[in-house]
Amino acid sequence: MSQHLLLILLSLLFILLNPISASPIIQKFKEAPQFYNSADCPVLDPGDDDNDVAAKKPIFCSRRAVHVAMTLDSAYIRGSVAAVLSVLQHSSCPENIVFHFVASASADASSLRSTVSASFPYLDFAVYVFNVSSVSRLISSSIRSALDCPLNYARSYLADLLPPCVRRVVYLDSDLILVDDIAKLAATDLGRDSVLAAPEYCNANFTSYFTSAFWSNPTLSLTFADRKACYFNTGVMVIDLSRWREGAYTARIEEWMAMQKRIRIYQLGSLPPFLLVFAGLIKPVNHRWNQHGLGGDNFRGLCRDLHPGPVSLLHWSGKGKPWARLDAGRPCPLDALWSPYDLLQTPFALDS
User: Fold this and answer.
1) Given pLDDT bands bounded at 50, 70 and 90, which one contains residue 115?
2) Which residues, if any, are the signal sequence (predicted)?
3) Domains along the chain?
């Protein structure tokens, strides 16, 4: 028996005797410095809800706190940790920020929670388990398999997952960093009836987000007839959860996903249902709050430049992620702006 074949057989035996866990090994991260409130930060009220959440941790129901929602999983944990650090570092009142993390029921929520606590031992946060079975049956395949992950759809269920006392939340993807105070974004005026706010991009070809089957259908094509529908990126949104709950918007999104199962009306994951429900009805936010597309397109992930204008948030939406390109030794120029927020503890890192 050749040495090569023997090694293969020994490897197979090792795998059989030591089955690989369903969850990838969680990476280890350095502890971030603690950030403190400035002198003029508001004193947080405990909220007016008489419930267990407010009793245990009043900040979780405070209307003066900045509530941030993100998903959390082992594949994107490195990006999530960097995003949290960027939020805290550029906040004038970091102690007034609460993070609401959503993890899949199949994930090791305990390990994810420990990872966040180790890097941010002072952080006010909670991890909510998202049972993906309800949405998995509604997901249709898209142009990139990563977009089909059920956790991508968690943003549609925040009103159900977060405590009822949380009335407003800033939703952030894990592949971004802030370079400005998130309180400015959280304070966006939603007016009298808007449910969410986000930067709009009315120069984008809106029709391309839906198939010919959608536009050729006499009923479906009238969906946007009474509104000026523009593309917006769902990776950065300010959401009024109270209005969302009152309007049963999760059910509205699910209705379009069920329609997609019968007639293929779009190609791009969790974004089109949001556009179908909200495009033309959102409160526009300055483009500086989502310099998106830095991950390139959904196929090749090529390098891209910033859009013209000021920058408050950089978003590596698209196929290419800065940590992957840096590890591969093929970073894009703008990936250097993400690198300072990377807390990954490498085996050869020297303590400063």
Assistant:
1) very high
2) 1-22
3) 57-339 (3.90.550.10)
Model confidence, pTM = 0.88
Alpha-carbon distance 311 to 47, whole Å? 33
**Residue in this structure with the two tokens 């120029």, named with its chain if needed:** 333
Instruction: Map 5-67 to HEC letters.
Output: HHHHHHHHHHHHHCCCCCCCCCCCECCCCCCCCCCCCCCCCCCCCCCHHHHHCHHHHCCCCEE
d(CA 279, CA 318): 21
Q: Check residues 298 and 7 and name the one with the higher pLDDT.
A: 298
Q: What angle do CA 121, 125, 130 make, to 5 degrees?
A: 130
168 phi and psi, to 5 degrees? -140, 140
Element (H, E) at 269: none
Q: In this model, does residue 296 exceed pLDDT 90? A: no
Q: Is residue 313 within 8 Å of residue 236, measured between CB atoms?
A: yes
| 177 to 78, 80, 186, 236, 291: CA distances (angstroms) | 12, 9, 15, 11, 10
User: Are the beta carbons of 102 and 130 closer than 8 angstroms?
Assistant: yes
The lowest-confidence range among 281-285, 293-297, 298-302, 318-322 is 298-302
Nearest to 323 by CA among 302, 301, 339, 306: 339
Calpha distance 306→308 (Å, rounded): 6
Q: Are 171 and 236 in contact (CB under 8 A)?
A: yes
d(CA 205, CA 220): 18
Q: How far is CA 335 from CA 175, 206, 220, 229, 296, in A?
A: 11, 28, 41, 32, 12
Helix extents (H) in 67-163: 77-89, 109-119, 133-136, 158-161
Query: What's the rounded Cα separation, in Å, for the pair 277 and 72?
Result: 25
Q: Residue 266 burial by CB count (10 A; 0-12/13-18/19+): exposed, middle or buried?
A: buried
The set of residues, in sequence order, having a beta carbon less than 8 Å from that of 175 and lying 6+ positions away, is 76, 79, 83, 235, 295, 315, 316, 317, 321, 322
The percent of the chain in helix, strand and coil, each rounded to the nearest 5, is 40, 15, 50
